[in-house]
Amino acid sequence: MVSKMDRHTTMFTYLIAGQRWRSAIPLPGFAPLEDGCYSEADVIVEHGEVPIGLAEAEYRTRHLQVRRRDGLVLLRPPLGPRYLIGGGRIVVEAADGRDLALASSALVSTLFGTLCHQRGLLPLQASGVAVGDSAVLIAGASGVGKSALAASLALEGFAPVADGVVPVTLDAGQGPVALPTTERLRLWPETVAGLGLNAEAVDFFAEEGLRGHWDPGLNPGCGPRPIAALYVVLPQRRADPDLTPLSGSKKVGMIAEVTYRPLLQRVLGNHPAGFPIQVALGQRVPIHYFAAPSGYERLPDACRMLYRNWEALGIL
User: Fold this and answer.
1) What are phi and psi of 195, to 5 degrees?
2) CA–CA separation, 245 and 247 (whole Å)
3) Crossing angle of helices 249-257/274-284, nearest 10°?
4) Contact status, residue 137 vs residue 166, Cβ threshold 8 Å
5) Which end of the chain is more exposed for a tag (fewer CB within 10 A), N or C?
6) Closest C-alpha to 137, from 97, 180, 93
7) Count of C-beta atoms within a 10 Å radius of residue 17
8) pLDDT value of position 207
9) Which InterPro entries would you find in this protein's record (predicted)?
């Protein structure tokens, strides 16, 4: 890897999913730690030159190249910065302020999901809230309303523990557990307006077209949380919310569908820890399809439906 870190570059330190990040790019939505750049880091994010291509890459597309022998991943989105990911180091080549805003968003989504795949964590495309000592996950494709539902639950007092990507691992005593990443939710302006939130309480990027970060002011505490339930939001809206339980092999198949960037998982080579996590989720965690209601005004009804389900599952 080629890096051009200036020794005077300001570094921000974060704790994300139990890992210490030192980043030259601030991460909106994450509270930096007080210890600056003096502690050991699991992940380092720095500015530098990123090559156009990877020599001897086994996998190549227009926007992605992977070299499995040393785990290097080159991401070249059609717009914005380029990224080189390997081990615990991410190099970002950004041209301007908008590139940096895009990089801040990508670091906690695409790049974080890539690191999870490399390190044997199962990243789910989901948001998570704390219910008692457990976590409830709301998964699904981009744009189906995961964060809006999590925000509606936060308004009822259920603290967010992750948003966008939820890393899952196995605990010998507790089974599948979610690793907390952030207490803030990324929301589009229309979601902020639809939920009646105070726009001044949402930290929007200076660049237009990007989501803002909302901190509901709830403190869930830190540490892994056993996953008590997983809800997969369907893309189709309905007049009334609806839950459909899944069983058997459908559960494991659904987990594969809501894994973050499953193509990356396959290209990197399936980590030996990944499949056991999927199997444990399918065997030990209740999974439901969730048909979200049309319109923000019906989200309180959806929350009440979830409460009743939690009571039936013994979560509440």
Assistant:
1) -90, -5
2) 7
3) 130
4) yes
5) C
6) 180
7) 25
8) 57
9) P-loop_NTPase (IPR027417)
In sequence order, the 6+-apart residues with CB closer than 8 A to the CB of 120 are 169, 271, 272, 273, 274
- Rounded to whole angstroms, how far apart are CA atoms 268 and 274? 12
Query: What's the chain's Rg over C-alpha atoms?
Result: 19
Rounded to whole angstroms, the Cα distance separating 19 from 229 reads: 24
In angstroms, the CA 117 to CA 59 distance is 16
pLDDT per residue as tens digits for the range 232-260? 999 887 778 899 999 988 888 889 889 98
**Domain parsing of the chain, residue ranges:** 12-107, 122-313
Burial profile 188-200: b = 16 or more Cβ within 10 angstroms, e = fewer: beebbebbebeee
Beta bridge partners of 16: 19
The conformation of residue 225, written as its DSSP 8-state character, comes to E
Contacts of 176 (CB under 8 A, 6+ apart): 168, 169, 170, 226, 227, 277, 280, 281, 284, 285
Provide the H-helix boundaries in 224-315: 249-257, 262-268, 274-284, 299-313
Taking the C-alpha atoms of residue 29 and residue 203, their distance in angstroms, rounded to an integer, is 8
Q: Furthest-apart CA pair in the chain: how many Å? A: 57
Rounded to two decimals, what is the model's pTM?
0.89
**Count of Cβ atoms closer than 10 Å to residue 249 Cβ:** 9
Q: Which of 223, 242, 220 is nearest to 174 (CA)?
A: 223
DSSP 70: T
* Count of helices and strands (H, E) across the chain: 8, 18
Does 206 have pLDDT greater than 80?
no
Q: Give per-residue pLDDT as tens, 26-39.
A: 887 788 887 554 56
Alpha helices in the chain (DSSP H): 97-107, 110-118, 146-155, 189-194, 249-257, 262-268, 274-284, 299-313
Residue linked to tokens 């309480």: 201
The three-point CA angle 278-279-284 to 5° equals 105
